[in-house]
Each structure stands twice: as C-alpha cells, then as structure tokens.
Request: fold
Amino acid sequence: MKTFRTIRELREHLAGLRSEGTSIGLVPTMGALHEGHLSLIRRARQACGTVVVSLFVNPVQFGPGEDYQNYPRSEAGDLAACEREGVGAVFAPAVEEMYPQPPKTSVHVAGLGEGLCGASRPGHFDGVCTVVSKLLNIVEPQAAFFGRKDYQQARIVQRMVEDLNFPVRIELCPTVREADGLAMSSRNRYLDAESRRQAPGLYAALMRAGDEIRPDGPPRDALLETLSGQIAHLVPAGQIDYLELADPQTLEPLEVARPPALLALAVRLGGARLIDNIVVDEGGAVL
Ligand code: AMP
Reply:
C-alpha cells in the first residue's frame, strides 16, 4: 500500500495502473475509520482491481460552530486498517494541497440538499459535492462507494454525477451497525456512557415506526408522531433535530407512509448529533 500527500504523485501512480488496465474504486472518507468504512473498502475490493481510500477532513463542509477542529483524527490507525484491508493507495492530503487558495467554485445540487440535514447544516452539501467532485477528478475511478448511513449525501452525489456526466458509478452500501443496532459513526465516540446506552433506541424507533410503512400506511403526521413517541420513550435524553418521511429518490416529503419510503432522523444526544435512516422499498424490504 502506498500513501500519497500530493495530487500530482497520486495521479502519476494511478495513470500507471490505468495503463495496465486496472479498474479503480474510490472510497472517500474523513478518517477515524470504523467497520462501516471498512465494509465500503471490502465492497470496493470485490468490484474493482485496486482501491483508493481518501482520508481528508474537509473544512468546507463544516459550518461555523460545528466540530471541524475537534473531529476525531487517527491517521496511524487508519493507515494500518487500510493496509490490513488490502487497499492499494491512501490519499491523505493536507488542507493546503486540496485548497491552495480559497475556492471560488462550489457545486450545488438544488432541491435534494435543502431538506433533512440540509436544513440544519446550510452549505454542508455544497461542501460535500465540491470535495467529492475534486476527488473524482483527481482519482478518476470507475466506481465510488458511499454508505446508506448518510443516505441524503449518497443521493445528492448520485444526482451530481448524473447531472454533470462524471464517468463514474456511485454505489450505495448498507449501514453497518453495532450489535445493539446503533449505526457506526466516527462521532459515536462523543457519547458519554448514558447517551451511548440510549443511542441504539434511535434505530429501534425507526424500525418500530417503519413497521407502519405499508401500502395502507397512515398519513405522514401520524407516522412521524409514532416515531417521535418512540424516541421520547427509548431515547429520553435525545433532542430531535428533524424527523422526516420522504421519497427515497427525490427526497421530497411524502404525505402518506407508503413504500417506497425513506424514514430519516437527526437527534442530538450527549454532545453528538446522530443521524440514521431506513428505507422501506417497494416490496416492503427494509434497507
Ligand atoms: P465519513 O468518514 O463519516 O465522511 O464517511 C465516509 C463514508 O463512509 C460515507 O460514504 C459514509 O456514508 C460511510 N459510512 C459512515 N458510517 C457508515 C456505516 N455505519 N455504515 C456504512 N457506511 C458508513
């Protein structure tokens, strides 16, 4: 495995592989790797000849007062994990390498980024789309792998790639959870013991409310009331940022809880803002 700090050296390395006909898979991350990230790497290894993992805490996707400075960083452990997983190349640039001058260009996907997390994190998805565009242009992968845990992000990136003709396939991968159901996240380490004890209730609440998403399901408000009731019961210390029932493709609010449906939440709990979601597909399967 090789580690690159500069765009030029990474590009030279990848050009060599490409000329040998090797297909490239990209797994973009902000580091502090956990099993969720590793599952994306494993899927990328199955699908592609070589895997590039980026480790970059992207300043432009953090808002004022968010956790950019304190975001967990653990590069040595991340490199060791990538090595164990058979990653071909890690790209771990400094901020100055990615943004040598304050960028005047940013990528905005209208509509999809305004609801859900976009409402409480203005500009966040523009920052994500801008850095993902840069990474796609730097790495030129055949496929890039994103987790369903950040469902809105993955849909926005898919739409950006369609609209701007990036020659890449975006693959969504399942959410990896702790044994008790909590979606793995680098931010889970912010949780104190009591918050960690309550946190799995978020997924339990999604699953219980998700049971009601059926062809004869209830109106939106009733479903969201069920969900907030479950959260009050299972995660009493949680402060709801948003609960949303939406079309999984367009992310537009749904008026009736009928499949296919995305049920998503963000909840503040003990210093962390946790997000999670389920999608009930056309056939009633929960993803
Ligand atoms: P992050 O490092 O948080 O920016 O995440 C990098 C990628 O890993 C994104 O595509 C995330 O959706 C994905 N990811 C994060 N947590 C999980 C998880 N628990 N299961 C699956 N994918 C995840």
Summary: The longest helix spans residues 124-139. The CA atoms of residues 16 and 267 lie 46 Å apart. The radius of gyration is 19 Å.
